[in-house]
Amino acid sequence: MINIGRGPDNDVVIENPSVSRNHARITMSPNREYRITDQKSSNGTLVNGMRIEEPYPLSDRDVVSIGKFELEFYRENTKVVKKQVESTIEEKTIMVSKELRDPKMVSASSTGYNPERPPKLVLLEGKASRSVINLKEAEITVGKASDNAIQLSGLLTPKYVFKVLRDLRGNYFVEDLEGKGRLLVNEGKVNGKKKLEEKDVIEIKGLVKFVFR
After folding, report:
1. Does any domain span residue 57?
2. Is residue 6 a part of any domain in this protein?
3. Confidence (pTM)
4. How many other C-beta atoms are found inside a 10 Å radius of the C-beta of residue 175?
């Protein structure tokens, strides 16, 4: 078990006002699955940019946000790892040395979702209510209805054409909502949902075309 927080009795101590005294806890189950739990902190705990509300399983290189501090989770096969954690928060350096069983936490910037620089959809062809949208939300929809993040025009345009969503690991997906086989990614038909990569081109045949970047 690893406790993270501002209090001196934690395994990982982060002396910053954005961090609660007892902020989060990592535990290991009998089948060696690691989970992180928010300890009713003031500012919450995020995994890959998404706030967690219940114990959440951790995978290798998941980024855990504790206040203004980011930790990257690594899993090792060795039974005991001695690791020194170092990071800079608001020009203040924090050093932690602790023996940990199996996991180690090291400071790093996120390799997945970064709330400061979220990916975006950029309109390439067709008409839409917005030519650029930053994907800050965990899910956005595109279609004719007024509650879509991007509205499309056209008499035969469905209320909801597709959606772009982000999972808790920071991966983005596009999902067909129309069900007519018109959703393409890089000219390939999407059946259901498809993971997005940088510079993928999302197209509704005969209607609009966006690039994910």
Report:
1. yes
2. yes
3. 0.50
4. 15
